[in-house]
Design a protein that fits this description.
This protein has 469 residues and is an alpha/beta fold. Among the domains are: 186 residues, Spore Coat Polysaccharide Biosynthesis Protein SpsA, Chain A (Alpha-Beta Complex); 102 residues, Serine Threonine Protein Phosphatase 5, Tetratricopeptide repeat. The protein has 21 helices and 9 strands. Strands 1, 2, 3, 4, 5, 6, 7, 8 and 9 form a 9-stranded mixed β-sheet that branches. α10 packs antiparallel against α11 and α14 packs antiparallel against α15. The radius of gyration is 26 Å and the shape is globular.
């Protein structure tokens, strides 16, 4: 008999998000166990439509207490913890279900993709151009925690804020294993007022946490990160330094302190902090990356190149490093080397729009359009069916007046859903005086993207030509 799964959730005023979350778990949950901490909207009513077990909890400034109430009402074999503004891809539900039918002496740690438009984070990962989970965000940064664990094995969340469950499980012999299923988190889809309230609550609880135990280094780091998220870099610096007062050899906190100092425009202090971080831990990839960013901001491009190369050496999974290094090489006047590096970045991440734009920009500067076409066609030939790549090849053919080849690639990109490619196809057809085909292409562009201003104007111009015939 298959094992059962309880989905545990705490909520407050999540009427705009909870239904989509519950729907995304259809086929996984045997029961929804939801703790409401004081909703004033329709959150509870929506949850009841899904036959959720509801517990009303009097908020006491303690996230763990609320989480533990949700665990108390779970009756299934396993518990999966999620929030209303998080999603699981339907294609990944089978993998979660399989975990529940596996060994019961373990729990599972998940990477959460926190979607954001803040691109200057050290661990920011850009979204692919056609990523269905992006929802308009530029990319995401990761966080990791245990979310899936066997029930009735002593699991309890700990910590008033940034609450975690793995410590209690480990004390009973339940070890954490990684799970490759990503959790998609959209905290910024909430209203600005809700975001402000959440930041203020987390800061309040974070300050209380360090007051409760002034020796808790992790609490200082959490508070520092909360100040960073709020844009209060001065207080973030204070929090990180309090941690370092207790643990002065902590390379990761030195790296974080350097980030706060850099964002506070205190570049010399930032340079010292991050330099010490990589001296203490030469394998700290994020430290080398941050050090490169600081050198770049100071226009010390030779040093930036060395740091980005070192970051990729110690962390080969940082494929976006090719783009960082390419920019630094171009700024230092080494355009040939920069183009070779941006090519590596694009080959590693064919769906990366920033990598594509950088490669095209550099190859156009070098006046090597034919070579750029060949590179992009080679990437396509190896299975990277990315509409932006077809569109870029089409544009490169268009620059050299190779219109038939350009139209072929624009059509491919358009059929894959890229509205701008249909607009480009219309431009080529207009140039070759194929006005009926141009009209059809502009109409296809507007069918995909009704707000495409260029296609609207071009269609009107094409219609005037057809009327004059």
């Amino acid at each position: 008999m298959a094992s059962s799964i309880s989905v545990a959730m705490i909520v407050k005023d999540e009427a705009d998000h909870i239904e989509e979350c519950l729907k995304s778990l259809n086929g996984l949950a045997n029961e929804y166990c939801i703790v409401d901490t004081g909703s004033r909207d329709l959150t509870v009513e929506i949850a009841r439509r899904y036959h959720a077990k509801i517990s009303v909890f009097l908020w006491c400034d303690d996230f763990s207490a609320a989480r533990n109430e949700s665990l108390r009402i779970c009756t299934s074999d396993w518990i999966f913890v999620i929030d209303a503004d998080e999603r699981v891809d339907a294609a990944d539900l089978a993998a979660l279900r399989a975990l529940a039918d596996g060994p019961t002496d373990r729990c599972y740690r998940f990477v959460t993709r926190n979607y954001t438009n803040t691109t200057n984070m050290s661990d920011f990962t850009p979204c692919a151009a056609n990523d269905p989970h992006a929802r308009g965000f530029a990319g995401w940064f990761p966080s990791s925690k245990v979310r899936f664990f066997p029930n009735r094995r002593g699991a309890q969340f700990e910590g008033k804020v940034h609450e975690l469950v793995h410590q209690s499980l480990e004390r009973t012999g339940i070890r954490a294993h990684p799970c490759e299923v990503p959790i998609h988190h959209y905290p910024l889809l909430k209203s600005e007022e809700r975001l402000r309230e959440k930041r203020e609550l987390y800061l309040q609880l974070g300050r209380a946490k360090v007051e409760d135990d002034p020796t808790d280094t992790k609490a200082y780091v959490e508070l520092g990160n909360q100040y960073m998220e709020a844009g209060d870099y001065g207080r973030a610096i204070v929090s990180f330094r309090e941690c370092l007062r207790i643990d002065p050899q902590n390379a990761r906190v030195l790296k974080d302190l350097g980030s706060a100092l850099h964002l506070a425009h205190r570049s010399e202090e930032a340079l010292k902090a991050v330099s010490l971080a990589v001296k203490l831990d030469p394998n700290l990839g994020e430290g080398w990356r941050n050090l490169g960013v600081i050198h770049g901001a100071k226009r010390e491009w030779h040093e930036a190149c060395e740091c980005f190369a070192q970051a990729m050496s110690v962390d080969p999974s940082w494929t976006d490093g090719h783009r960082y290094l390419s920019v630094a090489l171009e700024e230092s006047g080494r355009l040939e080397d920069a183009a070779a590096e941006s090519r590596k970045g694009l080959e590693a991440e064919p769906a990366s729009q920033p990598a594509l734009q950088l490669f095209i920009h550099q190859m156009l500067r070098l006046e090597r359009r034919a070579e750029a076409r060949d590179v992009l066609r080679g990437i396509l030939h190896h299975g990277a069916e990315v509409p932006e790549l077809h569109n870029a090849v089409g544009e490169l053919y268009f620059y050299d007046n190779l219109y038939d080849e350009a139209k072929s690639h624009f059509r491919r990109a358009g059929r894959m859903g890229l509205a701008g490619a249909y607009n480009n196809l219309g431009v080529v057809c207009f140039r070759t005086r194929e006005f009926e085909n141009a009209k059809e292409a502009f109409e296809q562009c507007l069918a995909v993207d009704p707000g495409h201003h260029g296609a609207h104007e071009a269609l009107q111009k094409t219609l005037r030509h057809l009327a004059a015939k």
